[in-house]
Design goal:
This is Membrane protein. It comes from Devosia riboflavina. Keywords: Membrane, Transmembrane, Transmembrane helix. The chain has 49 residues and is of the alpha+beta class. The protein has a two-stranded antiparallel ribbon. The longest helix has 28 residues. The protein is rod-shaped and about 65 Å long.
């Protein structure tokens, strides 16, 4: 395999890793969840689902 081919393969793999990381992050952000806070004003419960 030539050096240019190797560089192209590394670039394609790097792009795939970045794309997968972005996809995973977006999937985690869209999942419903519940946030419970306890502070001076009392207890508050926020849900995004």
């Amino acid at each position: 395999m030539s050096r240019n081919g190797l560089y192209a393969l590394v670039a394609v793999l790097a792009v795939a890793v970045v794309a997968f990381a972005i996809y995973t992050y977006q999937q985690q952000q869209s999942q419903p969840g519940i946030e419970v806070r306890i502070d001076e004003q009392g207890v508050s419960i926020d849900g995004n689902g």
